[in-house]
Design goal:
The protein is mainly alpha-helical and 529 residues long. 39% of the residues lie in helices and 8% in strands. The chain has 21 helices and nine strands. Strand 5 and strand 6 form a beta hairpin. Helix 9 crosses helix 10.
Length: 529
């Protein structure tokens, strides 16, 4: 059951004035009181606003249903003629807040053609395509207080019930193709359960079939009508169905309500590209040049920057970028295809010891492997999070390193041969040298992609400090880091061995400020505040 998941009017107003990124939590319908005090449902049953005057007589501009998806939808509406004061109230709100549907129609573009096609294939009312407008405003990563997720806002239990995979790596509730199929299956089952009444089916989608069953039984006991408008349901559900029908009436006659629905091409939008195995999704995004926000919206089901070892191994990309995506995947060096590692546990291993060896923490390993405790067994495979590399998987010795003394500084110089899966930060950690020093000594930047077999110069910290006399912790050299898609302050802080607090202070970032791809951050590896 999908309870407490759809967007209240208060939440919609917030969406109109705030940039939305990442997961968003939507308040309950009880938070609508302030907006409702400013609106009174008319006594008439017509859903057209009586203040429209001659607007009701305005001729609708002809639209070609073969070119504009909204026109295609408009020609297939079935429920838009239903009239009720509650629908009128919702129509009035949308008319007074035209930006909401305008902005939502832009976010709907990657998904709506597929949803409409699936609804038509099943012979269901096209108005069901408006449920994601009310549920999530077509935000792929929308997350409610009840943990409902995705554009269709499935709670975990209902998602599992309808076959949506949910684990540490992947959440199919946010896969718009899988979730659309599950949502329509659920709605079809509800439609059958409630004797072909689509309004009761939509009410049950919001409030759960059990609650609607009980409301109907109360009316049977009292010998009252058994339609949606006659049963007693919670306020949220009483407004949910009228809001869907209000959207239908606005889509039918957008010009009457001052609405600007962004035209959407009436053709497929996306392609499915097989990756063959886990890949770093950030590299695919960068290699194709697909807009970061769009790429993440299409692939919101990936909870990490890579698929898990069991897949799925596919991504959604705009149709125009399909061939480029395939070429980018094929060109990825095998060692760069995924930044996750697997470690086979040996007799005597402990979780804390493995965490120290790989430069990570016990809680991180537990989360990555869905472990409740710390018990291990020999031969078990353990997943190691990205950007980490063992101090030594074999015996703790750097077998690929050769050492020499630098007579000019008294420090030691070491050469390191890059192995599969290693990164600049993991190599710096492994050999105990500042990342800034490693970059400087090898004329590299943080954006450099390493090659397997590449040799790097390593010098001991004493040699680095000898070249920088008087260098104290508060004079550490600055590095400019460009934020990439998927980055977080926590991830960046781990990469440079600094704290999130330090990153915020050095860059004057507030506690709730979000990072943007391309944003420049100043980092001082080795400096402490």
């Amino acid at each position: 059951m999908l309870r407490g998941t759809h967007i209240s009017r208060t939440a919609i107003s917030l969406l109109l004035i705030a940039a939305i990124s990442g997961c968003t939590s939507f308040p309950s319908m009880r938070d609508r009181n302030a907006a409702n005090r400013q609106q009174t449902a008319p006594a008439t049953a017509t859903s057209l606003d009586p203040n429209d005057g001659d607007a009701a007589n305005a001729a609708q501009a002809p639209a070609d249903p073969t070119s504009d998806l909204w026109a295609r939808i408009r020609h297939r509406l079935q429920l838009h003629a239903i009239q009720h004061p509650r629908i009128t109230s919702e129509v009035r709100w949308f008319r007074n807040n035209p930006q909401f549907l305008g902005n939502t129609s832009v976010r709907a573009e990657p998904f709506l053609y597929h949803i409409v096609s699936e609804i038509e294939r099943r012979g269901m009312p096209i108005e069901l395509a408006f449920i994601p407008i009310v549920e999530s405003a077509f935000q792929s990563k929308a997350l409610s207080r009840s943990q409902a997720s995705g554009i269709w806002q499935f709670i975990p239990g209902t998602g599992t019930r309808y076959g949506l995979k949910q684990d540490w790596w992947y959440d199919e509730r946010r896969n718009f193709v899988k979730a659309t199929d599950a949502a329509l299956n659920y709605l079809a089952a509800l439609h059958q359960r409630f004797n072909g009444d689509w309004l009761l089916a939509m009410a049950a989608y919001n409030n759960g079939e059990g609650n609607i069953d009980r409301a109907l039984q109360r009316n049977r006991t009292k010998r009252l009508p058994l339609d949606f408008w006659s049963i007693e349901v919670r306020r949220e559900t009483a407004e949910y169905v009228p809001r869907i029908l209000a959207v239908a009436q606005i889509v039918a006659h957008p010009e009457l309500y001052g609405q600007n629905l962004q035209p959407i091409a009436n053709k497929p939008y996306f392609a499915v590209v097989d990756t063959g195995r886990p890949i770093d999704l950030r590299q695919l995004e960068a290699g194709t040049g697909i807009d970061s926000e769009l790429f993440q919206a299409l692939n919101a089901s990936y909870r990490r920057n890579s698929a898990g070892p069991d897949g799925p191994f596919s991504v959604y990309v705009p149709l125009a970028a399909e061939q480029l995506a395939r070429e980018t995947i094929a060109a990825l060096p095998r060692h760069a295809r995924s930044d996750w590692q697997q470690y086979q546990i040996r007799p005597g291993d402990t979780l804390s010891g493995i965490a120290a060896r790989f430069g990570t923490t016990v809680p991180t390993l537990q989360a990555a492997n869905q472990m409740n405790g710390t018990a291990l067994r020999a031969g078990q495979q353990l997943l190691i999070p990205p950007n980490e590399s063992p101090t030594s998987v074999a015996d703790g010795n750097a077998k690929d390193a050769t050492q020499a003394t630098n007579p000019a500084t008294g420090g030691k110089e070491t050469s390191h041969t890059v192995a599969s899966g290693e990164t600049l930060s993991s190599i710096a950690k492994r050999h105990g040298v500042p990342l800034a020093q490693l970059l400087r000594d090898n004329n590299l930047t943080t954006a450099t992609i390493l090659r397997v077999g590449q040799r790097l110069l390593l010098r001991s910290v004493s040699a680095f400090q000898a070249e920088s006399p008087g260098r104290a912790s508060d004079n550490a050299p600055a590095i400019t880091y460009e934020v990439r898609s998927g980055d977080s302050l926590w991830r960046i802080s781990n990469q440079f061995a600094v704290t999130v607090t330090e990153l915020r202070r050095w860059n004057s970032l507030s506690s709730n400020q979000q990072l943007r791809p391309g944003q420049k951050l100043t980092v001082y590896p080795g400096r402490k505040i």
